[in-house]
Design a protein that fits this description.
GO molecular function: transmembrane transporter activity
Number of domains: 4
Structural class: alpha+beta
Largest sheet: 9 strands, mixed
Low-confidence stretches: 1-7
GO cellular component, one term: plasma membrane
Number of helices: 23
Strand content: 5-15%
Pfam family, one: FtsX
Subcellular location: Cell membrane
Membrane topology: Multi-pass membrane protein
Radius of gyration: 33 Å
Amino acid sequence: MLTFATLRERWASFAGGFTVLVLGMTMVSMSVLALASAGARVPERLAGAPVFVSVPMPERGDGDFAPDRPWSPDMVASLRERLAAIPGVAHAIPDRTFYAQPVIGGRPVAGEQGYAWSAAMLAPYRLTAGTAPREGEVALDRSLGLAPGARVPVLTVHGPVTYTVSGTVNGPGVYLSDAEAARVSAGVRAIGLVTEPGADIPAVAAAARAAAGPAGVVRTGDGRGVLESRDHERTRWIGLQVLTGMAALSAFVSVLVVASAFAVGVAQRRREFGLLRAIGATPRQVRRMVYGEALVVGVVATAGGVAAGASLGPVLGDLLVRVGFEPPGFAVEVSPPPLAGSFAVGVVVTLAGVWSASRRAARIPPLEALREAEVDDRPMPLVRWIAGAACCALGLAAAADAAASDGSDAFVMSGLVAAMGVIAGLALLSPAVVPPVARLLSWPLARGRGATGMLVRESALTAVRRTAATATPVLVTVGCTVLITGMVQTTAAGFAQARATTIRADAVIVPDGTPGLTDAAASAGGAESSLFSGLFEPDGGVLSVIGATPELLERAGDVQVVSGSLDALRGDDRVLVADWLAADRGLRPGAKLPVSFEDGTSASPTVAGVIRDADADVLLSRSLLRAHDPVALAREAYVAGAPTPPGAGARVVDVTTYAVEADAQEDRLVWIATALLVLVSTVYAGAAIVNTMVMSAAGRVRDLTVLRLSGATGRQVAWAVAAEAVLVVLLGTGLGLVVALPALLGMRRAFTTAMHTDVPLVVPWPLITGVIAVCLTLAACSAALAARPATRHAARR
């Protein structure tokens, strides 16, 4: 016969696992839905052409967003002529793009891009007022509020140009006449086929495939999604990493927290399992009973979590777009397969989490359960000892490797492995580590607070598994938060410090509301700037290239000349190559480097020397790169002497400000992703803490009743329980800091060696303090509230 106390204990164990699973599966289902919706999409501006022919796209590695080799101008003309002759094709339109940003009210309009007027048919966009643009005219999006006949400055790569608005269209973009667009656009990589009404699309695609031959690939339907911009592809890739991390972290932590919840539940029900064994239940039957209970809880909780995730998925999609992890137009679509997969993950997580608890329940002997005291002094399993020791040994070995690093790239991974290994090891060994550390921390409390302090100390030391179950999530959360956030902030500060010490300039011109600097803005006040682009090898490989002057490279101070001289860049027929490229291709001074440029033309400049640490594979003269890449914008311009106002789309900052802001966008995305992971881990830690407090309170009714009957007031009991919870959270916090801070200091030393400058250690203490405060508040409040029913029951007695 089940008593009220037994039912309450069982509900507490179920409620803990239920809450954690609902939360975890909500996160998993939201992430999985977003991942399923995050595939490449057909750009809106190309959705009106059912068939495209694009350049061949070689396989690229993960995270490689290099552009594809464009067609040569002669190939574009030939392909266009052949494709336009296909029956059913009304127009064959090369997709020409270029930089164009209108300036309205003295500020550049964000998000605008330039296109040839014929490309409007690819959407298709239509005129809402006025006429098509001619030479010196422009058609703009009607949402900008400019009427035909108005004059508007437009930023181009060369500088601001004032155009007359010829008309407005019902879509975004800055449209110039086809002839003018051809002069300022880059190479063509796709040709869209606008078909006649009623045309047979499969037949048109087959004819286009025959007409293009090996020079092009036909794209139809959803296959046109590969034509999205590399910027959008890169944004989707970043979002993929964030969503994958959130889903994996949610599933992983759910397993740990569910395992902890059921472990505590099994420990509190040892007498019940012992009685079952005493009346003849076999270990297999006990395991089946625990699995059955967990499966019921898991199915119900997972269904609730999946339903919540389905309703919150669109909200997550909007958030991802706003913070920059998904391109504009992204939306989470709710579909059955991702939800079914999330449900299956929830069931697997439940069964994985309860595996250890079921084995422990099945091993309970009848007599031990009947005579068991409240003291939890059972030894840890041998497997846990071995796993914990192995993780700690791995972490210490990685720490030694990081400490001995000479500044190579491997030291970051070594530092992470060191900290994560020790954190995992301490989490596994927590039942053995917690008692001596708790005894040390609680010693002043016991001496200074009399009976209450002694009670708090002895309770924490006696219930080892309860203390460890509470301290472990805090240890993992605080340790990982300090490590990851500190590493991100220290890395950003290190790069800024290195940049500030190498630049030899009086000021820097940087973009202001634009994706880069125009030539006019970059040369204001005698400033000098470099251009970044790509060179395409005959086999399809892409080399990064910087077009610069010798004076600019010396002023930037980040290029080491191995052989030759920077003066080689004064000629348009010579290049300097990176040391790895010279070794890999066997390029000696005087050798030819056959490449194609962004405009599709080919050349074979002469190798004049070898360089190192140039942030590019090839250096050539700025004038040569500009001649072959009419769309490249400068990232910054260095000023010697007093700067002059650079005009719209640019601003002047000092070197220190530039060093901090240079990677601001990248740092923002990395920090947001880091904060999301910290938020997820903190939520799970809080759930684990609350779960442990509620479950342990259900099993401490007898202890709390004795306290009340011995004269303690309800408030005193609540304070004692809350103080014990705070002590345990502080214990986990201390262990997390002890593990993470030395690893951060080691990585800081390696950063200093690698960057040849003193890198400051930056730890976001406000965020860390907030995480600790949340854990402390949840632990104290949940412990005190969970103990109230027991104290009231004792008072009635």
